[in-house]
Amino acid sequence: MSEKAPVGMKKEDWAGDRGDAWLANLPSFEGMIWPLSAAIVEAAAVKPGEAVLDVGCGGGATTMALAKSAAPTGTATGLDISQALAGETLRRCSTAGVSNVSVIVADATKAPLQSAAYDLVFSSFGVMFFDDPVAAFKNLRRALKPGGRLAFACWMSPKENPWNSLVTGVLAKHIVLPKPDPRAPGPFAFADPDYPREILNSAGFSNIAFNEWRGRIFVAGKGSTPSSAADFVLKAMSIGDLVRDLPESSQAAIRRDIEKVFSDFATKGGVEVDTASWFVHAGA
């Protein structure tokens, strides 16, 4: 171990760099998480005529799926802090002929949401990044109709998601990793269900339930190779922030080791690993 990582990973700027990175790698991100996104869409059980708010809508894949379920008289509204991703959502919906979609560009904590406007507040891995999660969920709850419901997906622990733990295991051999704060905003902030349960209770939700979803996904999407998967996690994912300021020789060594680890999971379909997430449901 020869290098020291930065004191901590920089705050994820979803309105700027992080949102731009997601957009630039949209097929890889969506392809990787789509099995889970499709499953939480199905679990949300949207009915025709319902109004749905898709929080952290990203590039709009889930927004379109929700809109199709709510059609012909229902609607889906994407909410994202990234102007770039919101614009991509509208572009894709227009191209696909999905007309019952609108988008709000705002932070969920401060978004000017109409009170009692939605039957469902939904999110596929978009609610773990709030700086003030209680305030954000209070705002989202106000937007739900009486009897409305909440459904979102969030990651379980890093060790149960090798797309992350394999990479951090490699990094730990090369650099001193900052000690993680398990409740800091980030992909695994809700891994311990006691924390999001506490947040949802404080925000006024009821009938809170956590269901496990386990399966397999392709790192960087179907068709990935150990090389393309290594490029993806280092260039597109926030974990790559830990190595971007290191000397080029150190970055190259880390990349080679990540590629070597991923080669053990290479299949005909791509770099395939186990994954685990929580599907969380609650009532207004």
- Contiguous helical run count: 9
CATH topology: Rossmann fold
The radius of gyration computed from the alpha-carbon positions, rounded to a whole number of angstroms, is 19 Å
Number of strands: 9
**β-strand amount:** 15-25%
Q: Please give the order of strands in the largest beta sheet.
A: 4-3-2-5-6-9-8
**Which geometry do the CA atoms define?**
globular
Task: Tell me what the CATH architecture is.
Answer: 3-Layer(aba) Sandwich
Major sheet description: 7 strands, mixed
Which H/E pattern describes the elements?
A: EHHEHEHEEHEHEHEHHE
At the fourth level of CATH, the homologous superfamily is Vaccinia Virus protein VP39
Explain how this protein is built.
By secondary structure, the chain is an alpha/beta fold. The protein has one domain: Rossmann fold. 39% of the residues lie in helices and 23% in strands. It has a 7-stranded mixed beta sheet with strand order 4-3-2-5-6-9-8. Strand 5, helix 5 and strand 6 form a beta-alpha-beta unit. Helix 1 packs parallel to helix 4 and helix 5 crosses helix 7. The chain is globular. 44% of the residues are buried.
